[in-house]
Amino acid sequence: MKKFLTLVMGLWFCTSTFAQTDKGKVDTTALNMDAVYNRPFLSFDKLPVALGGYLEANSSYFGSDGLSEGLSFQIPRLTIFISSTIAERIKFLTEIELEEGGAEIAIEFAAFDIEFHPMLNFRGGVIMNPIGAFNQNHDGPKWEFINRPIASTTIIPSTWSNVGFGIYGKTAKNSWAFAYEAYLTNGFDGSIIGSAENRTWLPQSKANKERFEESSNGVAWLTLKTAIKNFKYGEIGFSWMGGVYNKFEEDGLQLDERRRLDIFAIDFNGKLPFSRTKLIGEYTWANIDVPATFSQQFGNRQRGGFIDIVHPILNQRILDWDNSTLNLALRLEYVDYNKGSFRETGGNIFDHTYSIVPAVSFRPSPQTVLRLNYRMDWTRDILGNPSVKTVGLQFGFSTYF
Which of these, 122, 293, 343, 366, has the minimum number of CB atoms within 10 Å of its CB? Predict the structure, then answer.
């Protein structure tokens, strides 16, 4: 943990920030918290709304220890954005996602914003909890990799959103920007330690659609984030989300003690000085109060993170595309679902995955990316048996429209 924090801080001080507008220009004032509105939209003269969205599609061929299920094609998601400026300082935006070819339709974001002051804005509705950076800044066309980061989807179950209210603000002076967010929302539920995964599995709460109607236990969750950005060196964010996850009483009858889940995250993004190499990373850890009656396969501490390195090797006009870019990229990531030791023997509990993903991507424009990924995963079970190696080739695209 200390080594990773040292690495994060070192990268922050040796990076410079990057963010793209819909015209491909660098926007030095944009932070991850601005991602929900920092998208290309189409507006119409006689309509009070603006429309946008993105599509992802890919193919994959994976094998584990010599066994393969062959070639498959997927459409992971089609996402639609609708925004409206209701009046001066009042706006609304929603993000609706159709997953797996329309098998599931989810409202990921549907928030009403009122600006009282740049440092004091109100937001309410279906809020994308600002835990880490990827949960807010997850649009497929922004990334060179087909799969979303493991830790950012299985420890932070992105895209994680919930119903609630809160405030946020942002200010900039000279070469610095500062932002904060604070929200009260509904939270997780007891299914995180009762799923078919046979481990502590935070994404299981996403299956509970009732979280958009009521809290599972009547206790609000708090999410806090602060981000600091130097226009020369980069952006770093610190966030926390926590609360009681279990149903501890019903009709005044005490069922259990209150059990907490707390998730922490550090994120950064930037560009190496004197180069065009981009660095993006996130590290997250979760502490879960698991009842002593559960076996040790249900971990009470989880850790994970990723680092993306993206370097453009070609940037020029190709065919009719003025700003085409060819990138080489590399993702390094890991996740440990059960950090600790067995009580009886003192031996290490495993249940972790390491991944290396080299990639080549081509962007005919900043809003569209063609991606070729070669993925290598090494997974060990809770007992530390020899790693299962999974290797696969993926090709696909993601584009705003």
Answer: 293
- Type of residue found at 99: E
List beta partners, residue 221: 185
Domains of the chain: 2-400 (2.40.160.10)
Phi, psi at 395, each rounded to 5°: -135, 135
Token pair, residue 89, equals 């300082």
Nearest C-alpha neighbor of 238 from the set 248, 226, 230, 247: 226
Give the burial string for 177-214 (b: 16+ CB within 10 Å, else e): bebbbbbebbbbbbbbbebeeebbbbbbbbebeebeee
| Sequence-distant (≥ 6) Cβ neighbours of residue 177 within 8 angstroms | 29, 31, 170, 171, 227, 228, 229, 231, 235
Express each pLDDT in 64-107 by its tens digit.
988 998 999 999 999 999 999 999 999 999 999 998 777 788 99
User: What's the rounded Cα separation, in Å, for the pair 296 and 331?
Assistant: 31
Task: Find the helix or strand (DSSP H, E) in which 153 lies.
Answer: helix 151-154
Strand blocks (E) in 104-193: 104-117, 120-128, 161-173, 176-185
Query: Do you find a cis peptide bond into 159, omega within 30 degrees of 0?
Result: yes
Give the span between the Cα atoms of 242 and 211, in whole angstroms: 15
Tell if the pTM clears 0.90, that is, is over it. no
Contact criterion met (CB below 8 Å) for 235 and 17: yes
DSSP reduced 3-state for 275: coil
Q: What is the pLDDT of residues 213-249, one digit of tens each?
A: 999 999 999 999 999 999 888 999 999 999 999 999 9
Residues 317, 364: Cα–Cα separation, whole Å = 9
Rounded to whole angstroms, how far apart are CA atoms 306 and 138? Answer: 14
* Helix (H) / strand (E) containing 85: strand 67-87
Q: Which amino acid is at 225?
A: K
